[in-house]
Design brief:
GO terms for molecular function: copper ion binding; cytochrome-c oxidase activity; oxidoreductase activity. The protein is an alpha+beta fold. The chain has 3 helices and 10 strands, in the order ααββββββββββα. It is 33% helix and 26% strand.
């Protein structure tokens, strides 16, 4: 999760988020190079005293400053398109979970297991444990196995919501009357926090998401306890 004075991206917990971080660094490096080049050219324009009263046109330089930005955009577009297709890929999920957005809480259903469903509300401040996180902890966490491909189906019952967990690289809109899907793969255990990122009303800030990633054998025991 994000902490004070952390200006970087959160530590990734999935391969997709790793790829998003690599693409961010790749694009940022190109932006820095462009900024340095334009800054250098502007500084030299202010500092030199060259004049040319007879210069009316320059096809060569116009060709150069048209082609170079086009090549630069290709270096950004190709990895971006690759990443877009990777984010949409649904590859043989082990578990399917359904998330339903309400004003202002989430409901979850484990479609592969009989009768496992629950609501998830934000934990009030006066009920929060000492090591809890304000506005991020919930009364019922999502529990999912690590090292498994997870498919999530997202919808809403009232207004637009958005199911977003930054450390997993997941952001998907919850739209009434529509079922959206995406998938993710958690490569380590831990707690991963998210929030609704679509302005959905007065308590938009108070419908967090908490995912607990655990080993598969512990997840099976959790499912058995939920069914009992």
């Amino acid at each position: 999760m994000a902490t004070w004075s952390n200006l970087n991206l959160q530590d990734s917990a999935s391969p997709l988020m790793e790829q998003l971080a690599f693409f961010h660094d790749h694009t940022l490096l190109i932006i820095i190079m462009i900024t340095m080049l334009v800054g250098y050219l502007m500084a030299t324009l202010f500092s030199n005293k060259f004049t040319n009263r007879l210069l009316l046109e320059g096809q060569t330089i116009e060709i150069i400053w048209t082609i170079l930005p086009a090549i630069t955009l290709v270096f950004i577009a190709l990895p971006s398109l690759r990443l877009l297709y990777l984010l949409d890929e649904i590859s043989d999920p082990s578990i399917t979970m359904k998330s339903i957005g309400h004003q202002w809480y989430w409901s979850y259903e484990y479609s592969d297991f009989f009768n496992v469903e629950f609501d998830s509300y934000m934990t009030p401040y006066h009920e929060m444990p000492k090591n809890g996180f304000r506005l991020l902890d919930v009364d019922n966490r999502i529990v999912l196995p690590m090292l498994s491909q997870i498919r999530i189906l997202v919808t809403a019952t009232d207004v637009l919501h958005s199911w977003t967990v930054p450390s997993l690289g997941v952001k998907i809109d919850a739209t009434p009357g529509r079922l959206n899907q995406t998938s993710f793969f958690m490569n380590r255990p831990g707690l991963f926090y998210g929030q609704c990122s679509e302005i959905c009303g007065a308590n938009h800030s108070f419908m967090p998401i908490t995912i607990e990633s655990i080993p598969s054998n512990m997840f099976i025991n959790w499912i058995k306890n939920m069914n009992n």
